[in-house]
Fold this sequence. Notes:
Elements: H1 3-10, E1 13-18, E2 24-28, E3 31-35, H2 37-43, H3 45-51, E4 66-70, H4 74-86, H5 98-110, H6 114-127, H7 132-141, H8 151-154, H9 158-167, H10 174-182, H11 186-191, E5 193-199, E6 215-224, H12 228-253, H13 271-288, H14 299-309, E7 315-316, E8 321-322, H15 328-352, H16 366-371
Parallel strand pairs: 1-3, 2-4
Antiparallel strand pairs: 2-3, 5-6, 7-8
Amino acid sequence: MSNTALCRLGSLVLSDFWFADGNIILISGHAAFKVHRGQLERHSEVFRDLFSIPQPPVQDLIEGCAWVELYDPPGDILCLLKALYDGLYFAKSNARNFPVIAAVLRLSTKYLIDHLRLRCLTHLTSDWPSTLEGWDAREKQAVDANGQYSPRDACPHPILIIQLAKEMDLSHLLPSAYYDLSRYGPRRIVSGAPVPVFTLPDHSTTPTTPPNSVSPDPALKSTLHLSRPDLHMVFLGREAGQRFLSSFIAAELTNRPISADCTNRQHDHGRACRESSYYVMLNVLRAVGGITHGRDADPLFTLMQAVEMLSRTDFTDGERRCGLKICGSCKADLSECAGRARKHVWTLIPEWFGLTSTDVLSPDFSEVLEKA
């Protein structure tokens, strides 16, 4: 090893990926990774082409190995190598997985590692779906065993997704991300999102004691804010959702007639069903007025909740617990009406946030992933 190479090695932090039988060293910033050339060539034609470039007969080696300098963040390189060597598997959606997914997506796209890129895209599309059915499944997963709705435990902050989608041209993730963000209060929307920062220790080490030296430190965070145009669009979308609910109340709930087959028709002209519809209307109004804590700008949830109210039995008449006294026919009629409205909301979301029709199209990765 030449003096130049020796000095270079002494200034580097050696990562967990420092294999005694490795035959290529990747250098990123102050981090070094001694890995296997064949592993990189097998999965990436970019690395394969890079390593095929003829080298001068005399060159500086580090521990007898050629070395290549990469201009990617060390933490991203670590995530990519872990995915290549150990696989990229997540048992369930978890917001803490996002930094790894984002890092692997960026580098698997750059270095043309298709199977990892497709796995990242499949995971992101599951958390940020382009169908109403997918959204409902995602929201169901965000409710814990105690019935507590905790979306930020299951999925990362939507501002992080908006940034990644724009950076990587993944426009199909934007409608659900914008909609998710619009459900925050205005102050929280403007406050931005914390971003985990990958850090390296200040000391160097030797090949015999590779530390956990390249890792995300959740305690050190920066804050990512939306651009002014994006903020404007989020607030416009939020207002559009509220206007939709107001229009729905006026058109479908105010003085709602009983159904044609109402079985309560003979009892004071279906009073029980009319009062039930009125009660549902009051609760939808509470959502529009911002009284419903935490879910006051979520038309999809509000309309679903309206349907669920029709089957609940935990109301009280002052003496005992009971359900709404709406008949089966009026219940089915109102449920169908709310269901149609939810489907309509989903089709309107791209328009609310100034997105084009192509932004709602989700690529089908499943078939390609099976071939990868």
